[in-house]
Design a protein that fits this description.
This protein has about 425 residues and is an alpha/beta fold. The chain contains 17 helices and 18 strands. Strand 12 and strand 13 form a beta hairpin. The termini are far apart.
Length: about 425
């Protein structure tokens, strides 16, 4: 099917207007390249470029006697970290920076959402290669819009889809293990056995925590057990800066949020203990995030009306900050509420511009529709699937600096 642009949509560059958008730097400055650098440190051939040398000296990882520990703090964007440091809410992180240097600036991927970004961190691949192109995807094999976090059709949580439909690229754990090194994933015990966790952590030894205080304890237990057995990789994940920011809003310089600032204080304690343990076991430590968060104004929410939804070929995919729309008649979109809340961009042009990291296979291309509605600042799209709508105070998936820019903190082994 050929999609023609309606004059109401404006130029493709509208999505980058006024310097308010940050594009992924897949060629060496993104979260994809963090994992590629770790793979390189274990003698694996990475599927993507490693980090640029101005961001990371490869020897820091490859020469760490104990191996590499990578902590991913969900939604700890660069702006939120800077706000916490400026307000003296993270003294251990401040000491870390004083000792090891300022955070390097990385970009997330597009869309800057958890499912896509964590899969990129797990595989060292952009979304164009791993196929997890958003929080909700149209899966043609089951003819439904599916929630990737739960591997179920939207509105049908009791009907899981086949895990193999979304599984494609090897994980970092599989590649490191194939190279002869131990690989461990420390994450929430509640995630064990879930389809999305299996997608991310195949090939790794699962170690589950119940509380935040267990994370450094379990790390020390893991490194102690591996001591004397050669170098190892340990990936760790903490989700709740993201959780708190969705509910109360992110803590940003222009929009402080006490709930998110308090969460950073607890994360700061955990990082302090983690850094001490890595030093004792002579492991290099990397700390980064999958994406950041932007403040959302519930009064600016754009609920997609039923008449518009009825005229789409399928339920929208994507998420509340970047909606993917499948529509045979662009003028219907042009006359809807959507252009007032977003930049509407032809999906083929988005793909050609490299936002997803490259061309898509035919199977992946089916997952994302014809048009991208990239929400304006503060705006979120809402869809009532039968249980109401739930505006949030923080969100991500778009290309604003707060969503896209994440820190890279690094402590060498010695």
């Amino acid at each position: 099917m050929t999609i023609t642009r309606s004059p109401a949509f404006g130029p493709f560059s509208a999505g980058l207007a006024q310097g308010t958008r940050v594009l992924p730097e897949y060629d060496g400055g993104s979260i994809v390249n963090v994992t590629a650098s770790i793979l390189q440190a274990f003698g694996c051939e990475p599927p993507s470029a490693p980090l640029r040398t101005d961001l990371l000296d490869p020897a820091v990882l490859s020469q760490a006697p104990g191996g590499v520990v990578c902590l991913v703090v969900d939604a700890l964007g660069l702006a939120q970290l800077q706000a916490g440091l400026a307000a003296s809410r993270a003294p251990r992180l401040q000491r870390f920076i004083d000792e090891h240097g300022l955070p390097r600036r990385l970009t997330s991927i597009f869309p800057s959402t958890t499912t896509a970004a964590l899969t990129s961190l797990a595989t060292a691949q952009p979304p164009s290669k791993h196929g997890i192109l958003g929080h909700v995807l149209w899966i043609e094999e089951v003819r439904a819009a599916c929630n990737v976090l739960h591997f179920t059709p939207v509105g049908r949580p009791d009907q899981p889809i086949d895990d193999d439909l979304l599984r494609c690229e090897p994980t970092i754990h599989e590649r490191v293990a194939a190279a002869g090194f131990d690989s461990v994933a420390i994450t929430a015990a509640a995630y064990e056995g879930t389809a999305f966790t299996n997608l991310l952590q195949r090939g790794g030894e699962f170690v589950g925590y119940q509380t935040q205080s267990q994370i450094p304890y379990l790390l020390e237990q893991t490194l102690s057990a591996k001591s004397g057995q050669g170098r190892c990789f340990v990936g760790m994940y903490w989700p709740h800066i993201d959780t708190i920011a969705h509910v109360y809003g992110p803590d940003l310089p222009e929009a402080p949020c006490e709930a998110s600032a308090l969460e950073l204080e607890f994360v700061d304690q955990m990082i302090g203990h983690t850094a001490d343990i890595c030093r004792r076991y002579r492991c290099a430590l990397l700390i980064t995030a999958d994406h950041g968060q932007a403040s959302l104004d519930p009064h600016l929410s754009c609920s997609l009306p039923r008449d518009l939804l009825a005229n789409l070929r399928q339920r929208p995919a994507g998420g509340r900050r970047a909606a993917y729309l499948a529509c045979d008649h662009p003028d219907e979109l042009a006359q809807s509420v959507v252009p007032h809340a977003s930049d509407l961009l032809p999906m083929d042009e988005v793909i050609d511009a490299g936002w997803f990291g490259g061309p898509l296979s035919p199977v992946f291309r089916q997952r994302i529709g014809d048009w991208l509605a990239l929400a304006h600042d503060g705006v979120q799209f809402l869809i009532d699937d039968g249980d109401g709508v739930f505006p949030q105070l923080g969100g991500h998936a778009g290309l604003t600096p707060h969503e896209m820019e994440v820190p890279l903190l690094l402590a060498p082994a010695d």
